[in-house]
Write a structure and sequence with these properties.
- This protein has 18 helices and three strands.
- It has about 425 residues and is mostly helical.
- The chain folds into three domains: about 60 residues; about 140 residues, no CATH class; about 220 residues, Orthogonal Bundle (MetI-like fold), CATH 1.10.3720.
- A three-stranded antiparallel sheet has the order 2-1-3.
- Helix 4 crosses helix 6.
- The longest helix is centred in the N-terminal third of the chain and has 58 residues.
- The radius of gyration is 33 Å and the shape is flat.
- The relative contact order is 0.10.
- The model has no long low-confidence stretch (mean pLDDT about 85).
């Protein structure tokens, strides 16, 4: 090879090296750009979630406390039990509102005008009457005594104490008058007003008065509904996945079933509500607004998700496990239930838990079957009228009172906490029992 050919070869090699370097630089630049875009997307997503959580917590944390007013109540025997025979009907029908008003008049003797008295009466919740009646019904010894009783304040007073009503605004622009603020300040000076943990929020059912409303009824209704959903959807979904993946013949009928299952997983949830309305309520005449109907509807909605997750878990088991089991003489059923299903069960459980988490947060299908009813009493069975937490939140957000916004946010916090725990359980199960092949 002469010197000219050598120079040409060196020149060609240098040009090739330069092209490679340029290509590498461009590739690295593109990779850095892609990483930056991905990082920005993650940061924006986390910022949105953080903003959402901060907004919900900022609006809802106050619902876990309630303002109470201390009243000195005279449980007048002549008003409660004039006959003295401790008749329960007579005691329950006594006019406890008169005792509440008398206690408030004694607390504010300077409120002599009728208008001022009405403002004083509006300081306490209407639930104070029921609280006094329950106290007397549970303990007859208080009849004839004068006792100090903490009763819930009205929702507007509660919002004022929590800082949601601005005192500096003109009187016409706020729901609490200057006179009521004067009465409240006197209660604060006398140490007869304070905030306490709101046990009513967790133990009571719905109410038209925000200070008396709670998520207890909705929480119990949610548990009944999810229990029915789990009882139906989990075994049906798991066994359907096992049959379709391990035993069903490969023909056009099974292909049609698989396509329909995949399509049902993408159907809007309200369609399942319409199905429940037409089948379970109009045809089978099951009780309206009952957990048993809600559980049936949510089970239908959750089944496709559980089946798809179950089949994916079964497919993840290596074929060598099946071949080894069949090779040593195990039958198809023994191979499936002794070897395949135990290995796939963590994935099946994860899919089922995620399906249940989705069912807990559903609102639209339950609205269609009447679980949007106003439920005051705590449901005691699967056929009692009830509602669920998402629907309760929907109802409260439709109310104009500021206190209901606070309780809606608090209920969202409870629901999100429950969903995070469920999804965390799914992640723990997957991490602990999942096998990597």
């Amino acid at each position: 090879m002469n010197s000219k050919d050598s120079k040409d070869t060196l020149r060609s090699s240098a040009m090739t090296a330069n092209l490679i370097k340029k290509g590498l630089k461009k590739r690295y630049r593109t990779e850095r750009l892609f990483q930056s875009i991905g990082l920005i997307a993650i940061i924006l997503g986390l910022a949105a979630v953080l903003f959402l959580f901060t907004s919900i917590v900022g609006k809802g944390y106050g619902a876990f406390q309630q303002t109470y007013i201390l009243l000195t109540v005279d449980f007048d025997k002549d008003l409660i039990d004039p006959s003295g025979d401790r008749d329960l009907d007579s005691i329950s029908q006594a006019n406890y509102g008169v005792m509440v008003k008398e206690s408030l008049r004694n607390q504010f003797p300077d409120a002599k005008k009728r208008k001022d008295k009405r403002l004083v009466y509006r300081l306490v919740s209407s639930g104070a009457v029921f609280q006094l009646r329950e106290l007397v019904m549970s303990n007859h010894k208080v009849i004839g005594q004068k006792l100090d009783v903490w009763v819930p304040a009205d929702d507007d007073i509660d919002m004022l104490i929590k800082g949601h009503i601005d005192r500096s605004l003109p009187e016409s622009d706020r729901r609490v008058s200057d006179k009521q603020i004067y009465f409240i300040d006197k209660l604060i000076q006398a140490k007869r007003l304070k905030k306490r943990f709101n046990t009513t929020f967790f133990s009571a059912g719905d109410s038209r008065e925000p200070e008396l409303a709670g998520i207890g009824g909705a929480a119990v209704g949610t548990m009944f509904t999810i229990f029915v959903t789990l009882l139906l959807a989990f075994p049906l979904g798991i066994f359907s996945a096992i049959y379709l993946e391990e035993f069903a013949p490969r023909n056009r009928w099974t292909d049609l079933i698989e396509v329909n299952i995949n399509n049902l997983a993408a159907v809007p949830s309200i369609v399942f509500g319409l199905l429940g309305l037409s089948v379970f309520l109009n045809f089978f005449h099951l009780p309206r607004s009952a957990p048993v109907v809600g559980g049936l509807v949510l089970a239908l909605m959750t089944l496709p998700t559980i089946i798809i997750a179950g089949r994916a878990a079964l497919q993840s088991v290596p074929p060598s496990v099946r071949e080894a089991a069949l090779g040593i003489g195990a039958s198809a059923i023994q191979t499936t239930f002794h070897h395949i299903v135990p290995l796939a069960m963590p994935g099946m459980l994860t899919g089922s838990i995620i399906g249940m988490a989705r069912a807990i947060g559903e609102t639209a299908p339950l609205l269609m079957i009447g679980m949007v009813a106003f439920i005051v009493d705590i449901p005691k069975g699967f056929t009692d009228p009830s509602t669920v937490l998402p629907v309760q939140i929907f109802l409260w957000l439709d109310s104009p009172e500021r206190a209901f916004v606070e309780r809606s946010s608090a209920a969202i916090m409870v629901l999100l906490t429950f969903l995070i725990l469920i999804n965390g359980l799914a992640a723990v199960l997957r991490r602990r029992y999942e096998r990597r092949w």
